[in-house]
TrEMBL record:
<dbReference type="InterPro" id="IPR003690">
    <property type="entry name" value="MTERF"/>
</dbReference>
<dbReference type="GO" id="GO:0005759">
    <property type="term" value="C:mitochondrial matrix"/>
</dbReference>
<protein>
    <submittedName>
        <fullName>Uncharacterized protein</fullName>
    </submittedName>
</protein>
<dbReference type="GO" id="GO:0003676">
    <property type="term" value="F:nucleic acid binding"/>
</dbReference>
<dbReference type="GO" id="GO:0006393">
    <property type="term" value="P:termination of mitochondrial transcription"/>
</dbReference>
Length: 197
């Protein structure tokens, strides 16, 4: 990065911050690789999107051409979870061990793009869900935002959850995301396949 001019670094960082597809990587300790290999990463992101790849990682976007071609040829569309864990560490102030211990309980967590986790986290925050509730039910972040949103709407009116309501008729906050998980997974017999929608 020291071989680039200050103006180039500033411009690339600005573009990375403004592009929504790169936002989950902003707090990654290896984010300077995105500055160094900016054009390469940007082009690869387009290629992977066109090829319907879901799990592009910072490492994949900035690796050498030979390695990138090899991984694309194999077609192994999954992640080690490094980018997801680093993003959650920064966003939720949790340790690597706490995050991995919780997410490893879900059999498909390493097949979920960091962007899905990031957008669901942002949606829950905008919906007024407290950070402690999210941490208590961390696996809900693996599910697509639209599915989580549908379940939250369903819970508001469903008589099935009347036993979980307080005296004001609102679902108790500590149970809300657990109920979302219940409604997400119930049609799939609690196998974890609800993440595919």
């Amino acid at each position: 990065v020291l071989t680039l001019s200050a103006a180039t670094v500033r411009e690339r960082l600005s573009r990375l911050h403004s592009d929504p597809s790169f936002r989950p990587y902003i707090h990654n300790p290896r984010r300077l690789k995105m500055v160094i290999y900016f054009h390469c990463a940007y082009n690869r992101k387009k290629i992977l999107s066109e090829s319907k790849w879901r799990c592009s990682t910072l490492d994949l976007l900035s690796t050498g051409k030979k390695e990138f071609d090899k991984r694309c040829k194999i077609g192994m569309d999954l992640t080690t979870g490094f980018d997801t864990v680093k993003m959650l560490q920064k966003e939720l102030n949790l340790t690597n061990t706490e995050i991995r211990t919780t997410l490893n309980q879900h059999s498909h967590w390493n097949r979920i793009p960091v962007m899905t986790v990031f957008t669901t986290l942002e949606y829950l925050r905008q919906a007024g869900i407290q950070q402690s509730q999210i941490i208590d039910c961390l696996q809900v972040l693996l599910y697509p935002t639209k599915d989580v949103e549908k379940c939250l709407q369903l819970i508001e009116t469903s008589p099935e959850v009347d036993c979980c309501r307080d005296s004001n008729g609102k679902v108790r906050p500590e149970l809300l995301l657990h109920l979302v998980m219940y409604f997400l997974e119930r049609p799939y017999h609690f196998t974890g396949n609800g993440i595919w929608g």
